[in-house]
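User: Design a sequence. Structure:
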């Protein structure tokens, strides 16, 4: 069982670099405004996933600090985003 779990994690970890190699030729042709629109869309999708799926999951398990950890992660992402904008 442990070996199959490690293989599953390895395969899941490979999806990011493979996706980057596949997407790079397409993304490199985009202008700044098109890239900004696409990144804004993807950011919205990530916020939706975190609000619609992770927040209820954190409430389901309701450990002592699960909600606090989720909100701290969102706050950290916002701080990093605003810090880069300045």
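Assistant: Done.
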């Amino acid at each position: 069982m442990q070996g199959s779990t490690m293989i599953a994690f390895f395969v899941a970890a490979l999806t990011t670099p493979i996706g980057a190699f596949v997407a790079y030729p397409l993304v490199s042709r985009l202008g700044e405004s098109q890239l900004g629109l696409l990144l804004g869309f993807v950011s919205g999708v990530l916020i939706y996933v975190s609000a619609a799926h992770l927040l209820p999951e954190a409430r389901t398990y309701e450990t002592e600090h699960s909600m606090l950890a989720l909100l701290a992660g969102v706050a950290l992402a916002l701080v990093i985003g605003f810090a880069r904008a300045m």
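Residues 1-30 form one domain. DSSP finds three helices and no strands in the chain.
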